[in-house]
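Q: Trace token order:
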Amino acid sequence: MKPKLCSSQRGKASLLDLIVMLIAVVIVVGVLVLPTIAKRNARSSKIGCVNNVKQIGLSIRMWSDDNGGRSPSQVPANEGGAKEDVERGVASRYFQVMSNELGTPKIVVCPEDIGRKAATDFATLTRSNLSYFVVPEAVWSITNLWLSGDRNLATNKVALKPGLFSMLANPSLNWTAELHDRKGYLCFADGHVATSDGIGKLPYTVRLSQSATNALRAYYDATANVTFRLLIP
């Protein structure tokens, strides 16, 4: 004959069953919901990066309109620009002179860039607070020319170092793993933003090396200069 459980034992058993069931429900819900949340967060980060790159391009254009059509890299420091610092490869000054147009230092940091964090203000901005490169030789009429983009660029699979990088003919460019799963965004001189190598869903999709070749060709056709530079933070 099996021993009968007293009422207190039955109560404890029922409570234990309930706790086990609740834990199982929480686990199931977590398995179902967490991937969806992760996807939403990733999508939100990508949208944030697109908006940042586009805002940087717009800010450069606005600043240029107030300075005779010249970008910060084309205006000397004594006129409120960043020409000398850019020639020394200092990217932070380029963005500092556009503080009014940018509005907040958060604009110049990609939400997915865990290696960089937003500065508290533009006065303290350094390369550690920047996620985006700029092109010092910006010419608004050359629509294929890059204006800005994600910093995680490499040539022949070697990451570009901070400072000025001269684009070469038939460039072998790729994205590093630092951002966007080896992909990135580019802002062009006419203000549109393109997704490079299949990231996200944008009206414009380009292949990085082909886009670089097109930009170099267009820049040469317009200026007779064989190269333009990237200012990498």
Notes: The helical segments are 7-65, 83-87, 91-96, 99-102, 208-223. The CA atoms of residues 64 and 70 lie 5 Å apart.
